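Bug: token stream looks shifted between consecutive jobs. Job 1:
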Amino acid sequence: MGNYQQPLLENRSLYQMAALISLVTTSLIFITAVFLVRKKFTLITVLGSSMYPTFRTGDRLLVLKRHFPHQYRVGQIVVAHPPYPSPKWREKLYVKRLIGLPGDEVAVPETQLNSQIHVAEADSIDVSRNRIWRLPDTYCFIQGDSHWSEDCRAWGPIPVQLLVGVVCLKLPCRTGSADDGEIVKQAPSAVRSTSLPLKIDGE
């Protein structure tokens, strides 16, 4: 009987080893996938109204991180840091639409300017009263969909390095209040740690 028991023990040992290898491999694949997702994507929650009606408060957006100007296209909805020197403001993010890239000429019609919001000095004003900005090599122009948005119409062009990424998906679930909105804050997610809260504003 002892002769039969030894092969059984060996087979059980091999099975346990195979199961352990499978578990380790699966764990490594999962950890690698989570790392890559966290490196490439971030999840944010909208607060505010500057992208209304495109986005509303509570909308959850998946953002694909981008690091180089050539990765962006005019018309994309982007996430960017505000152009304020204060570290407090630099922790925040804004969701806006990309209107112009380095080297572009941006024309903003007078009808898109809000008399109650400061308007940055433009390079020129054409015969149709459009404000014209000519973007330097390292600058871009972002603008909210709402008439009340605070954006490059008030700031002027901003450095393209302030762009964080492109909104690639609006998730079907929503959080927060039912107010219209466009400000963004970091939302809890499995792909990004919430130990360092990230606020995203879009007033």
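Job 2, same session, no restart:
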Amino acid sequence: MDHNTELATNIFLCSLNILQILANLIVLLAYFTDSQLMANDNIILLVSLAFIDLFYSSLSIPYLIALFIGWVPNGIDYHYNEHVVLGFGSGPAALMKSGCTITTLIAIDRIWALWAPMKYYSLKKR
């Protein structure tokens, strides 16, 4: 990958991460400052989704900064053994995938509740 493409990709990822943090902070700020929203029990899944997404995006900031400046630990470009990476990386990768699946299902549930509220609540009451 040439330098310009790498720079454009890194700028896009950093701006996307900043946008993600700001959007989730707005959702959480709106929830905790508005008493009507806090009284609504149905919005708790959306708040949980915003909190977890804020947590994930906050954890990725140091990695994006390191990616942006091109930092390599100890100045050495590491070449990892694929068996070690697979052994130690498959557990956390499975947890991240399940977390992404759960947050996606929560988001779909909330979109469905907003898109067709009467049908959604009639199916939930059965």
